């Protein structure tokens, strides 16, 4: 059983194409890592209010790197995970509740942007 996600839910606004350049960088820089991986799993950590970044990441990596790449969108907000479910396309794209514990998964690549603010600072 995966550990319970820790953190605080943020406003999580997300817009289409917001991470396009990052997706292209991942494909160019980490493409060989994904091509050589026994399990080409990529995690979009903290995808936000809309699952669009995970959907776009999966499409871009499948086209540019490896058609069987798997993307898992992780969010700590169960309502966001439920709302994203209709966008899932197993086995290529799934959505799970999780945080930095990565829901117990062992990805080849993790994309994490703007999720550090979910965690309080420690003195």
Q: Any overview of this molecule?
A:
The chain is of the alpha/beta class and 123 residues long. It has a domain at 39-113: Rossmann fold (3-Layer(aba) Sandwich). The protein is 30% helix and 16% strand. It has three helices and four strands, in the order H-E-H-E-H-E-E. The protein has a four-stranded parallel β-sheet. Strand 2, helix 3 (78-84) and strand 3 form a beta-alpha-beta unit. Helix 1 packs across helix 2. The chain is globular, with a radius of gyration of 14 Å.
Structural class: alpha/beta
What is the multimeric organization of the chains shown?
single chain
Q: Indicate the CATH architecture of the domain at 39-113.
A: 3-Layer(aba) Sandwich
Topology as H/E string? Answer: HEHEHEE
Give the terminus-to-terminus CA distance.
Answer: 31 Å
Q: Strands of the biggest beta sheet: in what spatial order?
A: 3-2-1-4
| Average pLDDT number | 88
Shape: globular
Q: Number of DSSP strands?
A: 4
Q: How many whole angstroms does the radius of gyration measure?
A: 14 Å
- How helix-rich are the residues, as a percent range? 25-40%
Number of helices: 3
* Major sheet description: 4 strands, parallel
At the first level of CATH, the class of the domain at 39-113 is: Alpha Beta
Beta-strand percent range = 15-25%
